[in-house]
Amino acid sequence: MAQADNKDLQNLINKGVRERLPFVFYRLPDKEEINCITQSSKENNSAEKLTGFMFFPFIANDSAPSYFIKADSHLTMGLDELATLILKIEDISGAQTGVYTSKAEFVIQVEKAVKKIKTGKLNKVILSRIQKVDIKIEPLDVFTELCKKYKTAFVSLVVIPDKAVWITASPELLVSMEGSDMKTVALAGTKPANNNAPWSHKEKEEQQIVADYIGNVLNKFCTEIKVSGPVDVIAGNIMHLKTEFGAKRNTSLKVLVDELHPTPAVCGMPKKEAIEFINTTELHKRKYYTGYLGPYNIDGKAELFVNLRCAEVFNDSVNIYVGGGITSDSVAEKEWDETVMKSQTLLSVMLPKAKIL
Fold first, then answer.
1. Residue 12 is inside which H or E element, if any?
2. Which residues, in sequence order, are bridge partners of residue 298?
3. 3-state secondary structure of 197
4. Which range marks the domain in which residue 350 is found?
5. Residue 30, phi then psi, degrees to nearest 5
6. CATH number at residue 236
7. Could you read off the pLDDT of 190-202 as tens digits, one per residue?
8. DSSP class of residue 23?
9. Is 33 in a helix, a strand, or coil?
10. How far apart are CA 321 and CA 266, in angstroms?
11. The pTM is what?
């Protein structure tokens, strides 16, 4: 990688827009450095033995394929350099698409999930919805502000012209690997960051299901497993429970990620039954929401994050994807309120920077 020359980087962006080539900006948690990866062809590559950026959906299909953006160019910069670049949303994305779930519909879905869980056929399931906002944003402006506001988040702007433009400020690591060393986390349970009340039984149970699942996966594929937590962590206006795992892996990244993803934090348990419930209950397609993304084989590391606190950006609107974990103790109205709270992670940054349509 090399330090960015602003003129060269603007030329690469212009080429990507003009020739419809993929590119991505990202900032790792607790880092100052901004990275930009650009690809010089439209080819969708396999990650094996390449260097670049993974962008994978919740469940891969024809409308939401897995992407690997090859690092034909990898430049780094600071926020000051980023501020001089120009990227217009109308040059890279089309008009809005999506299906929106009303509050009444979401309440019915949650009640249906609770009923299913109480039969014993599910332990937990995540239900999500899309919140459409009729605004026009400049993607790099929002990316810059997210980097400033959420220092501990993984922040990214993925651009695959005419196909996918997504902005993310994720609090959740899926897996990081360097050599045989790997790390992951179980992140679940949600309440306002300023709420000092004890965690409820529902929130503790939700997080423990995720931690148990990850522990079982690591026991199959890893040695020297170390576990710490759960502890409280703050992500913007929200607090979660987090358990951290470290281990030595004895299998490939692909095998481990395929086994981990989707975790109960974004899907539910048992996994097969939860996916079936999601597919038959949610009105929208998740696309890349609750998928994973991040740099691969950069300096010998893979750092992949769950695609949460994310939005799909269109020329005339933004689709913010939000969801929550449903257990037998869930109350539908509270679950709706949780999704509204989660939407503020991006809305609090987007609205001041947006043109209201």
1. helix 6-19
2. 301
3. coil
4. 2-356
5. 60, 20
6. 3.60.120.10
7. 888 888 889 989 8
8. E
9. coil
10. 12
11. 0.94
